[in-house]
Amino acid sequence: MQTSSAEAPQIDSLVLEISGPNVPDWILSREINLLPSSSELGGLVSAIAVFHQREYHEPNTDEASADLAIAFNAGIWGYDSWKPTLSFMCQSEGNDSYACTPFIITAYTIEECEDDAEVISEVAEEAVVKRMQSSKHDNAVLAHQLWAPESNPFSSRIERKTASVPRKYYENNAWQAWLLGPSTSAK
Prior knowledge:
Strand order of the largest sheet: 4-5-9-6
Number of domains: 2
Largest sheet: 4 strands, mixed
Strand content: 25-35%
Radius of gyration: 18 Å
Helix content: 10-25%
Structural class: alpha/beta
Number of helices: 2
């Protein structure tokens, strides 16, 4: 099915926010222009990257949530520090602007990707229980898997040598996607 240009959203600017606790100090005050200086790409007038040294669930000066969140090789299964962010994305603390954020997670292996999915499911189930106990939104969809862990056709083809495990690791070798946050129909 083709979409006419009248139905397609017209995007003229893009802001790519890079955030996380490990963003280096030296780049925090920089704003990088991603467009070639003399051209527009497909109607895109501006495209910049901004950098923050914070986790997604920590206070943000912007009011709206991201249109898309991506966590590259996140290792959600191995770091409890992901749980507050996942809980925030599922709960949205009653803030309508944070509802239903698509979230793509990559992993070095399918097994790690499956382990990440298990943690996301657990945190989402906890969020459902909390939401049912504290509000009238007991029928909200807080986590919906858009696609299950699978091989990522865009992964690196260069093996990442890892001495501690016998399997082969590749950057972004597997991926999955979720829609996290209360459904707008439940509000």
